[in-house]
Amino acid sequence: MLIPTPLGHTGLNINRLVYGTLPLGPLQSNLSPEEGGKLIRYALEQGVTLLDTAALYGTYPHIREGPKGYDGEVIIASKTHAATACDARAHVEQALKELDRSELDIVHLHGARLQNPFLERAEVFAELKKMKMEGMIRRLGVSCHYISAVEQAAENPDIEVVHPLINKNGMGIIDGSAAEMAAAIKRCADNGKGVYAMKALAGGNLISEARASLRYVLDLPGVHAIAVGLLSKAEIDGNLALFNEGVADPATWEKLESRLRTIKIMDQFCKGCGACIPSCSSQALRLENGKAKVEREACILCGYCAAACPEFFIRVV
Ligand code: SF4
Ligand code: SF4
């Protein structure tokens, strides 16, 4: 029996397992909208309610396809990485059009690599608030890799949902430890914000200890849910059982934990332009002999560099 969890004071009740759609799209597995839509549909039928996406991910077609004819609840959270008000509005309009919706349940200021998102993206945040007033957005959120940004979100009255990066090893947290991020998360929840975490498996780096890693984040005070990239029915079933019943079928999970993901740079084609380097907040990329190289120990498989390469020469596979 699945018991929905209140997402802070948002009024939304969600399954603790949030469908992270990034891996379905062109930045990672590049499934067709039909293939990705089938997985989304399966997850919805098993009780998942919140789908997480972004203007960057290229997964609106998958999300539109999945719930066709489904009459259960489907909550969609998207994000805008825009640097200007005009681009932010364009991102929201694009989401509404491609998702065939009149409003978006949650839109995050995609502040992943921003230390002070409400200052650095003041113009974008003002535009998001305007779009909320206009009825295009129901709730505003912020996605953060910085602890300082999560702390600011905790005190921001316009923010209802926070989407922070956390995992048991603290991989990808830019300005401190997992314990410090956990404290900032608790502060958000104490102030009524809904919190669903990202990168609990550090983009695949912790896949070999997935159960312990997910349990660590699920048990943190203030974490209402976690977004997990799901690429098979077995992953959906295994995660739902773990999240909702606290059980983990050992045979399923041994298989899931042995699955390896990696970043692939097509270095035979890479032009060495360097456009991908600043997109990596983990400092995992460098140019060497005119080619982009990745330091695998530092890479959290977030896929942002894949979006930054104008030639599509980087993939998370
Ligand atoms: S190398 Fe790419 S995938 Fe890895 S952490 Fe950096 S931006 Fe993310
Ligand atoms: S952006 Fe693409 S082409 Fe440019 S250095 Fe990075 S991988 Fe190579």
What does this structure look like?
The chain is α/β, with parallel strands linked by helices and 317 residues long. The protein has two domains: 5-257, NADP-dependent oxidoreductase domain (TIM Barrel), CATH 3.20.20.100; 263-316, Alpha-Beta Plaits (2-Layer Sandwich), CATH 3.30.70.20. The chain has helices at residues 33-45, 60-65, 85-99, 117-120, 122-133, 147-155, 178-190, 210-218, 233-245, 250-257, 304-308, and strands at residues 5-6, 13-14, 17-20, 50-52, 75-80, 104-110, 137-144, 161-164, 194-197, 225-229, 263-265, 285-288, 291-294, 314-316. Helix 2 (60-65) links the parallel strand 4 and strand 5 (75-80). Helix 3 crosses helix 5 and helix 6 (147-155) packs parallel to helix 7 (178-190). It starts with a strand and ends with a strand. Bound molecules: iron/sulfur cluster (SF4) (2 copies).
Number of domains: 2
**Can you name the CATH architecture of the largest domain?**
Alpha-Beta Barrel
Helix fraction bin: 25-40%
Largest sheet: 8 strands, parallel, barrel
Structural class: alpha/beta
The level 1 CATH classification of the largest domain is Alpha Beta
Q: Please report the total strand number as a whole number.
A: 14
End-to-end separation in angstroms reads 34 Å
Strand order of the largest sheet: 3-4-5-6-7-8-9-10
| Element string (H = helix, E = strand) | EEEHEHEHEHHEHEHEHEHHEEEHE
Mean pLDDT: 93
Q: Give the uncertain stretches in residue-range form.
A: none
- What ions, cofactors and ligands are bound? iron/sulfur cluster
Computed Rg: 18 Å
Tally the helices: what do you get?
11
Cα shape? globular
- CATH topology assignment of the largest domain: TIM Barrel
Percent in strands: 15-25%
